[in-house]
Amino acid sequence: LEQMQQGTLMRKVKSKSWKKQRYFKLQDDCMTIWYQSKRMGKIESAFSISDVETVREGHQSEVLQSLAEEFPPERCFTIVFYGRRGNLDLIASSAEEAQCWVQGLRQLIEVATSMDQREKIDQYPFSDKNKDGRMNFKEVQRLLKMMNVDMNEDHALRLFQAADKSESGTLEGEEFVLFYKALTQREEVLSLFQDFSEDGKKLTLLELVDFLRQEQLEDEGTEELAMELIDKYEPSETGESQPGHRLADGFLMYLCSPEGSIFNPRHRALWQDMNQPLCHYFISSSHNTYLIEDQIRGQSSIEGYIRALKRGCRCLEVDCWDGPNGEPMVYHGHTFTSKIPFREVVSTLGKYAFKTSDYPVILSLENHCSMEQQEVLAQQLKAILGEQLLTATTDGHVPTQLPSPEELKHKILVKGKKIGRLEDTLDGPGDEAPEVSDDDNGAEAEEERRRVKVGERRSSGAVSWVLALVVNSTWCGWLCWPGNDPTSGPHAPSLGNEFVRHNAWQLTRIYPSGMRTDSSNYSPQEMWNVGCQIGWFSLPSRARSPSCPEPFPKKALNFQTAGTEMDLCDGLFSQNGRCGYVLKPPFMRDEETVFNPSDPGSWEGPGPITLTIQVISGQQLPKVANSKDGAVIDPLVRVEIHGVPADQAHQETKYIENNGFNPRWDETLQFQLHVPELALVRFVV
User: Fold this and answer.
1) Is 502 a catalytic residue?
2) pLDDT value at residue 531
3) Catalytic-role residue among 332, 368, 502, 642
4) Which is it for strands 52-57 and 76-81: parallel, antiparallel or unpaired?
5) Domain spanning 135-184 has what CATH number?
6) Which residue in 245, 280, 287, 502 is the catalytic one?
7) pLDDT tens digits, residue range 268-277?
8) What angle do CA 466, 472, 473 make, to 5 degrees?
9) In this structure, are residues 685 and 655 in contact, taking their beta carbons and an 8 Å threshold?
10) Is residue 59 annotated as a catalytic residue, yes or no?
11) Which fold has domain 1-115?
């Protein structure tokens, strides 16, 4: 860290031809890194450690891979950011310098992500730069940034001056505690605190247990949980001197922590039965995974696969076409999108497939290659993936039902199209039909079909690998259907119970219409309502501002970008350990079910329930993008229910005029839910 604070000259790389030296330096707060041009001498950019997701060593980006012959991997590394910010590819002068930054950044990321609020407050001495036991206003500002408190400088200064009882221009000891309490004081939380506190000043262990049971709906191990929360979130020495008590500031810290989330903490871990057939799960999926911009001129990148896999995505798409020098390429055919070698995609898949989830990955292979390059595809898949690649049924016999995620752990399945029965595949090679992309339109698809009609067959070498790798297409019995495309056939909800029953024993893939050239997504909820397992999303990186009006503009999305469709996908798959598989409700797993999402009253469900949500307050809300200097927002909260048609609803609070710092709504909203098992709640500020 000391070496990083002294600064290092490294190459910032954007392409094979754009390699420029920049001076990188870790600031004294150990939370900010800035870099400047060597030639101009001015700061070019800066970023916070809290914005960094991970650091990758070696040639782990397309740019650094293209420079592999010029720079050894031990000098190269990539800084990966959360959200829409592009990765930062760097080349150090030596392997030692590269390791210094790689290890230093990883240490800082671990500290930033693991510190709880109490530990952040304990950084007070650390922020005392001149070690005199006092903190001036600049040192306090540095600490606020470290604690992720972004506030108006004038307001912070007023609070600072009010806490400076000695009028020395600095804070020490209890003065800083006063400043912090004034900074985070929330009357609405204090009111809730006093509802459960007999003396209005502290919560005893039993009073905290009452709160957890009545308000947080905790029912098991509540006393143990209460003690853990007091130990973790009580920052006051006064609170510590009364073991088993909690003060209001610790109570606030708990409410704003992950433990205080409305999301059931037990569902963040893997908690569902993973031994049921694949068709009994909703499966996290992506469409045109390689694209990170639009479908016509966008960039193709292995980064699309890395981001999708790290978010738990279990179904990926690869469009394969003939490339130069006998090397198959991945891109969106008959467009101006850029190209990436198939070999790189498979290598990325082999490396990242099971970092986030142990459960199977389905590779949707859209094969447009010639006979010769198909054989290259096969060789690369087998050589790179090895034992990860599933090439036969789990026991070598024709199954009576689909295998489970548990049976297919750490396996990669190839989805394609083929002619013939599964029995023929297991017995030996047979005839093979050319692949036609599910979302191909026009002359391209017609040419593929014409080749089948005239009897053009691939060589036996290609046949053997296709039959081996695509064994699971017949096995799974896929139904592929363009979503929300009125020209493609009957609308999914109109099939109702019939479609729900089909999806109780077979897999269905829904994909965006080929006419959606802007990479926009369809709403997945109506597909989930009829039990469709796989809804394919476009995941490009260009996206709207979070302040863009709803419901959802036709812009491209990625996994980190705000937007209704991806919010629903994130919401559904945030449970069960983010493993990419979510077990469908029991009434959607029964082949004889009478459930019809368009008529919830047609089945013997538990009946409507009432969902009550109290919207209390917010704090430090961001300004609307592109707003004028000095503008102040008027925030409101919209609560949306996404589910079966009878449950679709939304309600809004009133807006609070000119207050983005600590708006308070105190409004109660109620919803009637007929099928709560399929309902998602979305909060929009």
Assistant:
1) no
2) 92
3) 332
4) antiparallel
5) 1.10.238
6) 287
7) 899 999 999 9
8) 80
9) no
10) no
11) PH-domain like (2.30.29)
